[in-house]
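Sequence only, no structure available. Ideas?
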Amino acid sequence: MVFGMRSALCGLFGATTFVAMAPAQAAGTLNLICSADVVVCELLENAFEQETGVSVNMVRLSSGETYAKLRAESRNPRTDVWWGGTGDPHLQAAADNLTQRYESPRQGELRDWAIRQYEASGGKTVGVYAGALGWGYNRDLLAAKGLEPPLCWADLLKPGFKGEIQIANPNSSGTAYTALASLVQIMGEDEAFAYQKALNDNVSQYTKSGSAPVKAAGRGETMIGVVFMHDAVAVAAEGFPVEAVAPCEGTGYEVGSMSIVRGARNLENAKLWYDWALRPDVQSRLKEAKSFQLPSNKLAEPPPEAPDFDKIKLIDYDFETYGATETRRALLERWDKEIGASAQ
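Reply:
I predicted one. Tokens follow.
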């Protein structure tokens, strides 16, 4: 997959001045599920409330948890908008008719990968940011044990990392499902599961949250956390001794997405949020919360610390196939049987 992002960005920003198109003051409430880091969620919640007057009831849930919640509430929806989290469960929610089509007037400002997400879902979800999969390692812990940094997927199987790796559970975490689907696309399904069985010997914990493993690495509780690279960058930006890695064999990536729930009780406010969240000035503010993904609006200013996609070997990730309900269910069932059942 070739994004061609970084070179294009240089010409876009320069002395560009963003003029916010503030929505008119609205009334009422908005029920929001946010699947990004809680600091990002709170920044968006507070900014939207201040600008629009809408009272936001925000809950932070992982992508897998959100999908399960939307399914459980499908006959009586209690959520209006789902913002953030990996794109695969958003596509699955679209395929299951849990979300509804909406085309924002901001559509023409978005990057190709954000539009492809929209088209793949039949207009029911759209990309809001992108992030490459990798890991973060604690360089102090590696140095103390005299170990070389893991630069490839194969390196994670080395005996020196026994009990020193954390990764999330793909049933609850969109990050971990992206890792599972990426390995299948890189290696083939049987080889990918054989790899994960071997990796299980080195995994100390399968966490609920996708970003938790690298936060644990930052605190010195584990040596390596398999996460999206921007999460590793965020931990490093807080002063922890963490280095981000893009695997040498290639890696998948996420298109963090946004969807309006089918049957939303506060539909007009849901559309208001949707349009607002795609604005370049709003997306440019995410770096204030140490969010280091690449924003989907071409006019938004990405954080200077964001991983350089032009220097990462990205696979041609098949979002439609691996976001499909049957594919996802089959992979998770196999993971539960072959990996989860024997997880430490």
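Confidence is low (pLDDT under 50) at residues 1-24.
Hope that gets you unstuck.
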